[in-house]
Each structure stands twice: as structure tokens, then as C-alpha cells.
Amino acid sequence: MTTTRLREDRGMTLIEVLVTMVLLGVVGTLVVGAMTQTSRVFVRTDEEGQGLADAKVVLDRVTRDIREASRVTCDGVMPGGGTDTDCRLHLELWLDHNANYVGPPATAGASWTEPEELVTWYVTPSGDGVHCDVFRREGTQPAGKVADSLVIEGDSTCRTFFEYEPIGSFATAGVEPDLVTFKMFYDPRAGGGVGERLASTSARLRNG
User: Would you say residue 34 lies in a domain?
Assistant: First the structure.
């Protein structure tokens, strides 16, 4: 009886303890690795979804304004200062809300008779050194921010581009663009799981 009791109470040997610790370490490493990978996938998916949603809001609103516009104008001056002679970095649209056909001034830089019908889209650096904010302004009213820290800031300029057809319309007398393409490079969290993406839209003026 004494011998049997001693065998039952002897416990685990050092080798058994070491083997158990090794197995627990391996299982723990696998579990932590799986949780870390799952977390990265979740963050990446969330970031990509948020960036795409913000970009869609901007593209939808720009497209709607272009389609409702009667004319694309270009005075060559960026909101807040600076020149942009061919309006590649900002967009100016005449939206004739009251349909009285009192449009943009005949002379560039002259005052509008109905300034509230001028809609301007532009981007400015957000201050973090990486992103730019997207703004929309009606006439002389304060600009409204449409997207926050979305567009990537390039070398001294925000990476958005407006293109017009016919090409060179603003430089040719009597020729006005009727098709506008807007492109923007965006990344809501620079250095995150999702790289820089390009979003673009094209729309034709319906009321021109």
C-alpha cells in the first residue's frame, strides 16, 4: 500500500514541466500571431472602407455640381491666393439657380452680378504635412469642408487634378469646356495598411 501511494503522489518530473512550457509557448505564439493578423486585417478593411466612403462623397458632390452647371469658368486665381491659370488645381462653376441667365462677368477678374451662383471646389493642406482637406464654396459664403484629411499632399501642392475638354478651352477664345474630369490621390491614414489610391470622375454639363 505504501509503495502505491508514493507513486501516486510523486507529481511531474522536470522534463514533463519543460515539455509543457514549450507546448504552451508554441500555442501562445500561434494565438498571438493570429490575433495580431486579424487586427491588421480589420484595421486595413476599416481604413479602406472609410477612405472609399469619403472619396465617394466628394466625387458624388462634384459630379452633381458639374451636371447642374451652365458654364465652367476660370479666373486663374486660387482661393486664398496663388495662381492657377488653367484651373487644374481648383474648379469654378456657374450654377444658374434662378435661371435668369445672368452669368459670369465678361471680363476676367470682374465682379459677378450674382456672386452666389459661383461654386468653387478646391483643396488646402490640412496641417499634418501629409493630407489636404477638400472644400466647397458658394459665392462669398464661408467654404464648407467636404472631406477632412483625405487627399495626399504632394510636393507643394495637393494632389488633385481637374481636366477639361475640349483641351485648352480656357486659352482659346470662344471655346468653353463641356466635360470635366476630376482626379484625386487619397489615403486617409498615410503609412497604414492601405496605400495611396486614385479616384476619378467625369461629368458633362447638362445646362450649358
Answer: no
